[in-house]
Amino acid sequence: MAGKDAKRKRNREGESANVLDKLDGAEAASVLRKLLERHCELRSEAEAIARGMLAEISPFSVADDVENALLQFDYDDLNGRAGGHSWGYVEPSEAAAELLEEAVEPFVSDMKRYLEMDLEDQARQFCQGILLGLYRVRDSGNNDILNWAPDFPGEAAANALEVWSETGGAEREGAPAKKRRRRLSPDFVREHVPDWDWVLKLGP
Hints:
The chain has 204 residues and is mainly α. 66% of the residues lie in helices and 3% in strands. The chain starts with a helix and ends in a 12-residue tail after the last helix.
């Protein structure tokens, strides 16, 4: 009997592990929140693990992802947005800008999330990656979508810089963290986005 009980216990443990492995991101996050609510002593360890996972950010990998996101569209995507609709006519240039904005928005949101977690260095790396990705596609004259929105890369870069430079950090002891303008490194600009030296002059 003891052997059967032990086997049943192992089976139950295996089933539990299998359930955890199959949770999606939102479900896993919910489980973590409930676990930390019940075991507050684990919070500092969970914080350390989270910071370790978020520590390594390569601006070049971010740039690759931004570039791929912006170059993924073709005329079929544009035609699905442009032209006559029940709500009115959409210019191709407007449709192209919408597609490109939607492609960049998740990256800007991730950068803002790092700032709100007070991960300043990671946010800076992420911002540099966004700018570099946009810089790479600024002269993509053979791209159907970017041809309709030639000013988009520069405008999106300015917007990303504004978000990065002005977003506040994490709250400390119930008081909002003070906002302070952040600046890009001139060395980064000269080496990686030399034609965009205007980014160093943004802001007061």
